[in-house]
Specification:
The protein is 86% helix and 0% strand. By secondary structure, the chain is mainly α. 0% of the residues are buried.
Length: 84
């Protein structure tokens, strides 16, 4: 009976050790998950900003091209009207 009690204590000690190790791993995983979430949010914000800048640049390019086209067709020697 003493042997069984000693074995139970060893088993309980090992079980407690495993539980502690698992809790430590869960904590590390949770911290890493939070770090990855924050990094993901940061990357999403950077992507959104790049897309906004691209939209601005694309809009500016379109405006520039339209202005060039308008200027070209308004030159005095270019006429869109036909003479009969």
């Amino acid at each position: 009976m003493v042997k069984t009690s000693a074995q139970e204590k060893v088993h309980a000690t090992e079980k407690a050790k495993h539980i502690t190790e698992l809790q430590d791993l869960i904590q590390k995983i949770s911290l890493e998950q939070e770090r990855l979430r924050a990094e993901h949010e940061k990357l999403k914000a950077a992507d959104k900003e790049r897309n906004r800048k691209l939209q601005d640049l694309t809009g500016n390019q379109d405006l520039h091209e339209q202005t060039d086209s308008d200027a070209f067709w308004s030159w005095p020697f270019i006429s869109t009207a036909t003479t009969d």
